[in-house]
Automatic annotation (TrEMBL):
<feature type="domain" description="PFL">
    <location>
        <begin position="27"/>
        <end position="690"/>
    </location>
</feature>
<feature type="region of interest" description="Disordered">
    <location>
        <begin position="693"/>
        <end position="713"/>
    </location>
</feature>
<dbReference type="InterPro" id="IPR051215">
    <property type="entry name" value="GRE"/>
</dbReference>
<feature type="modified residue" description="Glycine radical">
    <location>
        <position position="794"/>
    </location>
</feature>
<dbReference type="Pfam" id="PF01228">
    <property type="entry name" value="Gly_radical"/>
</dbReference>
<keyword id="KW-0556">Organic radical</keyword>
<dbReference type="InterPro" id="IPR019777">
    <property type="entry name" value="Form_AcTrfase_GR_CS"/>
</dbReference>
<keyword id="KW-0456">Lyase</keyword>
<dbReference type="GO" id="GO:0016829">
    <property type="term" value="F:lyase activity"/>
</dbReference>
<dbReference type="InterPro" id="IPR004184">
    <property type="entry name" value="PFL_dom"/>
</dbReference>
<protein>
    <submittedName>
        <fullName>Glycyl radical protein</fullName>
    </submittedName>
</protein>
<dbReference type="InterPro" id="IPR010098">
    <property type="entry name" value="PFL2/GDeHydtase_fam"/>
</dbReference>
<dbReference type="InterPro" id="IPR001150">
    <property type="entry name" value="Gly_radical"/>
</dbReference>
<dbReference type="Pfam" id="PF02901">
    <property type="entry name" value="PFL-like"/>
</dbReference>
<dbReference type="GO" id="GO:0005829">
    <property type="term" value="C:cytosol"/>
</dbReference>
<feature type="domain" description="Glycine radical">
    <location>
        <begin position="697"/>
        <end position="818"/>
    </location>
</feature>
């Protein structure tokens, strides 16, 4: 039955054969998966009510203590449940896939959209009338009493125009925490929370309270002790519930529930002794971190490395078999998909598909520079293949000596067509980290965090991705329009000359450089104001306790408690910029086939004038394009990108000089689905793109402009300053499943990837293995494609939950053959 049902996900023999290779979910895990996927996501007010209680009761206390008492109130009182099918317990909300509300960040969009959540084009949530009333009842307390309100008044007048027009894409960051890290799960498993508790108690006892800085530390340590006790209580509640349910269960389930109770009485407070305890301990923390804060990209880190000792010991002792380990892993991945987050409608434009970006990293190298692949690495691949879900976000760390059989298995998973795994390249990332000040040992221990961002798990502070999105094509239009945004008519930058008055490409390039530098400075001002607000308003206590050096320094993460602290600015529309500059330089300034006035008028009319379409076709078809290994186009975007890399590095973040190594900014191209949202507000561009249509995503070429095959795409991407784009170089590619039908096809792809990583020093790549025909049919007949998953950007999502605009953008991507 399970085999028959699971093979219905696939529309072609290639994917069905790959699924047979990995096997199928057990009957109960299939049933659990089906139940979770069929469950409609509702908005849940329970957390918001409990937070309101705690904030009202403790409003005079320092924020670190207020946050600790808040989490305590939630974990002691929230609804808990144990599904019949599961071996792992712990829930974020009152029901699977329901989205809790975080009023301390903002309640404004929730109140404004109460009657709109079910009417969205994508990212739909359901809400009962009772929940609406509960939210309205607590709303007065939170008015002007939340992160968004306080961050708003922190913003200097000089940057208000960018916020009013949405230029920097800050909607989501004003509404939520932005985590992008993995806590120290290895230390959690080895020491238990009791180990962190002992460190906090000792640090508190050692304080010299005559020193002014000791007062804040005193309260921080108290907040850790309160939080750890709250987590212990939460786990114990599940032990009690499991024993209660065991009384009425059948014999087999009764023993399993008693085992669950025994595990929950130990972890996460005490060190894990078995694989079952290790998984439960990690899940409790992974879940509670996302009860504490509504950030995203809270990742599992190097899962196969810190979990393998427990797998190895259990296999040797006969406590587990490979099949039982895989079943528990599939249980964990299904639990992962139960975590949810509701975003404002505006935020969904850049984070389509309700992603949480919870990344699992496998493979790579050890701290001793040896291949890190172990038997658990293979079992993770197998379990992810069986569950076929958009979460967790699976990343394979590639290096030149990566186990060949493991690479083969990774490609088999990729053939299943749900966008995983992504590949990150040790050969470029590790040296880049070392260059930025990360120790060699830690650099070899990095993991993917979120989409393509990378960090050292358990040692990294907020945020390894930046808050603002720099819209490169829009910056170009502002440059051409003498510093004025053509869409809003507002001045965004100083006057450096209008495009119609320019007589050379050099003039345009110089104006671009100045405009980009100016707007980069403005983005830093915005980020600093919001980072300061995050630090003051919403310290994350559990997250800080489980990150190295926070206890030692007596500082939470947002104050600079971590070992390292780097953030990156993100750029959107890289390919549009390249193609636009190439068209202007060649057709206007070199060949003089078009005048500056003709091009400008065509842009202003969205190519609707008498010669509009003719000019548009010239710009598209008669100028070099990024993605074709054409140095003309590739060199132009490299020159412009270098300006941003140089400028962003000038500005330290708010943790600079306060303890962490780094405290600096660097660039990154992980634009998630912001290319669709930011495209909506960007007028026609000189690459022939129409106003309002999506921009190019990540560092991928514009749709169907890459005409010379995948190798040329990889060569173009490799010309970017990838060693400086430490925040991640996101490259999406799409191939038809039939392209990988034969074993020689798979080996051809592996050879291509090895060339990209070993010779061209590529940073990252991921594939959508799905045909255009399947996507079009899914758009027309969603009921036939419930399980269709696509790679949106640095993450995967169910195709049917995406807005039509995002679906169209994915359908339009170039489909390559090998």
């Amino acid at each position: 039955m399970t085999k028959q049902l699971l093979t219905q996900k696939y529309t072609n023999d290639v994917q069905q054969n790959s699924q047979k290779h990995f096997g199928y979910l057990t009957e109960r895990m299939y049933s659990y998966r089906d139940k979770v996927l069929d469950k409609k996501p509702f908005i849940d007010a329970e957390r918001a009510i409990l937070v309101t209680e705690a904030y009202q009761k403790h409003q005079e206390k320092p924020n670190v203590l207020k946050r600790a008492y808040m989490l305590q109130n939630i974990l002691e009182k929230m609804t808990i449940y144990i599904d019949d099918e599961t071996m792992i317990v712990g829930n974020q909300a009152s029901s699977d896939k329901d989205a809790p509300i975080f009023p301390e960040y903002t309640l404004e969009f929730v109140v404004n959209e109460l009657d709109l959540f079910e009417k969205r084009d994508g990212d739909v949530f359901y809400i009962t009338e009772e929940t609406k009333e509960q939210i309205r009842n607590i709303a007065p307390f939170w008015e002007n009493n939340n992160l968004r309100a306080r961050a708003g008044v922190m913003l200097p007048e000089e940057v208000q125009v960018y916020m009013e027009t949405g230029f920097f894409g800050m909607e989501g960051k004003m509404n939520s925490g932005d985590a992008h890290l993995a806590v120290n799960y290895q230390k959690l498993l080895e020491e238990g929370l009791i180990g962190f508790e002992k460190k906090a108690r000792k640090a508190k006892a050692d304080l010299d309270l005559t020193k002014p800085e000791s007062i804040d530390k005193y309260h921080f340590y108290d907040s850790i002790l309160i939080t750890i006790e709250a987590v212990k209580t939460y786990a114990e509640r599940f032990a009690i519930l499991a024993k209660k349910q065991a009384k009425t269960a059948n014999a087999k389930r009764r023993q399993e529930l008693l085992d669950i109770a025994s595990i929950c009485e130990r972890v996460p407070y005490y060190p894990a002794k078995t694989f079952a305890e290790a998984v439960q301990s990690v899940w409790f923390i992974q879940c509670i971190l996302q009860i504490e804060s509504n950030g995203h990209s809270l990742s599992y880190g190097r899962f196969d490395q810190y979990m393998y000792p427990y797998v190895k010991a259990d296999l040797e002792a006969g406590r587990e078999t490979e099949d039982s380990i895989v079943e528990r892993l599939t249980n964990l991945w299904i639990k992962t998909i139960t975590i949810n987050k509701v975003r404002s409608q505006a935020h969904t434009f850049s984070s389509a598909g309700s992603p949480l970006y919870q990344n699992v990293t496998i493979g790579g190298q050890t701290r001793h520079k040896e291949d890190a692949v172990n038997p658990l690495s293979f079992l993770v691949l197998k379990s992810v293949a069986q569950t076929h879900l958009p979460q967790p976000n699976l990343t394979v760390r590639y290096h030149a000596n990566l186990d060949k059989s493991f690479m083969n298995e990774a490609i088999e998973v990729m053939k299943l067509g749900f966008g995983m795994p992504a590949f990150n390249n040790d050969e470029i990332i590790i040296p880049s980290f070392i260059k930025k000040g990360v120790s060699e040992e830690d650099a070899y221990d990095y993991s993917a965090i979120g989409c393509v961002e990378t960090a050292v798990p358990g040692k990294w502070g907020y945020r390894c991705t930046g808050m603002s999105y720099i819209n490169f094509p829009k910056v170009l239009l502002i440059t051409m329009n003498n510093g004025i945004d053509p869409a809003s008519g507002k001045r965004f930058a100083p006057s450096y000359g209008h495009f119609t008055q320019m007589t050379s490409y050099k003039e345009l390039k110089e104006a671009w450089d100045k405009t980009l530098r100016y707007l980069t400075r403005m983005s830093v001002i915005v980020e600093n104001a919001i980072d300061i607000s995050l630090e003051r308003e919403v310290p994350d206590i559990l997250c800080s306790a489980l990150t190295d050096n926070c206890i030692g320094r007596g500082k939470h993460l947002k104050e600079g408690g971590a070992v390292y602290d780097y953030i990156s600015g993100l750029q959107v529309g890289i390919a549009n910029l390249s193609d636009s500059l190439a068209a202007l330089k060649k057709l206007v300034f070199e060949e003089k086939r078009l005048t500056t006035l003709e091009v400008w008028q065509a842009l202003q009319s969205d190519y609707a004038g008498p010669r509009g379409e003719e000019i548009r076709q010239m710009l598209i078809n008669e100028a070099p394009k990024y993605g074709n290994d054409d140095d003309y186009a590739d060199s132009l975007v490299r020159e412009c990108y270098d300006v941003y890399v140089e400028e962003i590095a000038k500005y330290p973040n708010t943790r600079y000089g306060r303890g962490p190594i780094g405290g600096i900014r660097y660039s990154g191209t992980s634009s998630i689905s912001a290319n669709v949202g930011q495209g909506r507000g960007t007028l026609a561009t000189p690459d022939g793109r129409h106003a309002g249509t999506p921009l190019a995503e990540g560092c991928s070429p514009s749709h169907n402009m890459d005409k010379k095959g995948p190798t040329s795409v990889l060569k173009s991407v490799s010309k970017l300053p990838t060693d400086e784009i430490v925040g991640g170089v996101l490259l999406n590619q799409k191939v038809n499943p039939q392209t990988l039908a034969k074993e020689e096809d798979k080996q051809k792809l592996i050879a291509l990837l090895r060339t990209f990583f070993n010779r061209l020093h590529g940073y990252h790549i991921q594939y959508n293995v799905v045909s255009r025909e399947t996507l079009i049919d899914a758009q027309k007949h969603p009921e036939k494609h419930r399980d269709l998953i696509v790679r949106v950007a640095g993450y995967s999502a169910f195709f049917n939950v995406l807005s039509k605009a995002t679906q169209d953008d994915i359908i339009a991507r170039t489909e390559h053959a090998l």
